[in-house]
Write a structure and sequence with these properties.
Strand 11 and strand 12 form a beta hairpin. This protein is an alpha/beta fold. It contains eleven helices and 15 strands. It is globular and about 55 Å long. The longest helix has 22 residues. The strands form four sheets. It has a seven-stranded mixed beta sheet, sandwiched between helices. It folds into two domains: 173 residues, NAD(P)-binding Rossmann-like Domain (Rossmann fold); 168 residues, Lactate dehydrogenase/glycoside hydrolase, family 4, C-terminal (L-2-Hydroxyisocaproate Dehydrogenase, Chain A, domain 2, Alpha-Beta Complex). Helix 4 crosses helix 5. The structure holds ligand NAX. The site of ligand NAX has 29 residues, from helix 1.
Length: 348
């Protein structure tokens, strides 16, 4: 059984309660029965991603395995049991053509994990195949206003691959998530300064979602003061701070015995919500177009300002010191190497 349930048939008019004036937003999620999915779906259905007045339809996509589809069925039962007023339908499928149909947002969470003894290049290629197919199908069947957010690793390169397959949807519709890294950096700065988390502003992530990422602390402020003044321990900023943020994922695996899931789901809620909220400035991996010294063809984290819901412009003009430039060069080198490993998968 490939489509196990469609509570709400696609392409049929919705009967909304009179109080809900807006039409539901269709959100397609791959890897929906995975760890991150298990935290994410409930947040979306509760209104955390698109606001308390926007109904949603969840289009859940899993790998074509009995076990995955069975698990998905269980998750959908739990979603039903939450009786979320905003949740207007659930689609469960292992066929991306059905799952991405008419989707306004496509959240690409599912990916193949790195197996024992697997080389990074093999991981890139195996995942590349998934993202080629998904990029093509999204381009073909998703809504005209479709936006894509990639979480599955290696997120930046997977996003680049998916975007390269699209003819209808422009590259700016494809973003990858570095928000978890921004959130991690914000908390580390607040703790070190002994300040409230909300006092930390303008901490942005540049580059790859990997340990080479660069949280540009020199531009951050804490309680209105430069972070480099609020925190006088610059050895910490240039060393342990960067290391803690960069290797936080590994530290969580070591402690929890499983990779970050709830915090990753939370970061994806932040990523999409802020991309839907004009005026928000936040870290997103986007096609670099050569900004901040990145190779023009790679997807790199950088600060963006949301202009209209779903659209953004890169915030340019942050001055980079020599230290920052060195760090950006390192993370750019890694992105360029990842691109070289999958270059034959990219469509011109
Ligand atoms: P899980 O292994 O728990 O779940 C992944 C799910 O994806 C599985 O249920 C699997 O059946 C499904 N899947 C695999 N291939 C699929 C396909 N072609 N179509 C649809 N579904 C498919 O992993 P989870 O912990 O949820 O992590 C998901 C991804 O997020 C991983 O690649 C992980 O590395 C990545 N992460 C990215 C982060 C980021 O900040 N960008 C942070 C967290 C996380 O590590």
């Amino acid at each position: 059984m490939r489509v196990v349930a469609t509570d709400f048939p696609l392409n049929q008019p919705l009967l909304l309660t009179p109080t809900m004036s807006t039409s539901p937003i269709r959100v397609a999620i791959t890897g929906a029965a995975g760890q991150i999915g298990y935290s994410l779906l409930f947040r979306i259905a509760s209104g955390a991603m698109f606001g308390p007045d926007r109904p949603v339809i969840l289009q859940l996509i899993e790998a074509p395995f009995e076990k995955a589809m069975k698990a998905l069925e269980g998750v959908a039962m739990e979603l039903d049991d939450c009786a979320f007023p905003l949740l207007k339908g659930i689609v469960m499928t292992d066929q991306p053509e059905i799952g991405f149909k008419d989707a306004n947002w496509c959240l690409l969470v599912g990916a193949k994990p790195r197996g024992p003894g697997m080389e990074r290049a093999d991981l890139l290629k195996d995942n590349g195949k998934i993202f080629i197919g998904q990029g093509q199908i999204i381009d073909r069947v998703a809504a005209d206003d479709a936006r894509v957010a990639v979480v599955g690793n290696p997120a930046n390169t997977n996003c680049m691959i998916a975007a390269s397959q699209a003819k209808r949807l422009t590259p700016d519709r494809f973003t990858a998530m570095v928000r978890l890294d921004q959130n991690r950096a914000q908390t580390q700065l607040a703790k070190k300064a002994g300040a409230d988390l909300t006092a930390v502003k303008n901490i942005f992530i540049y580059g790859n979602h990997s340990p080479t990422m660069f949280p540009a602390f020199a531009h951050a402020t804490i309680g209105g003061q430069k972070a480099t003044e609020a925190i006088t321990d610059h050895v910490w900023l240039k060393g342990p701070f960067l290391e803690t943020v960069g290797k936080r994922g590994a530290a969580i695996i070591a402690a929890r015995g499983a990779s970050s899931a709830a915090s990753a789901a939370n970061a994806l809620v932040d990523h999409v919500r802020d991309l839907m909220t004009p005026g928000k400035i936040h870290s997103v991996a986007v096609k670099s177009n050569g900004l901040y010294g990145f190779d023009p063809e790679v997807w790199a984290g950088m600060p963006v300002r949301t202009t209209t819901p779903g659209a953004y412009e890169v915030v340019t003009g942050y001055e980079m010191c020599d230290f920052c430039r060195e760090k950006i060069a390192l993370t750019n080198k890694e992105l360029v190497e990842e691109r070289a490993a999958v270059v034959e998968m990219l469509k011109a």
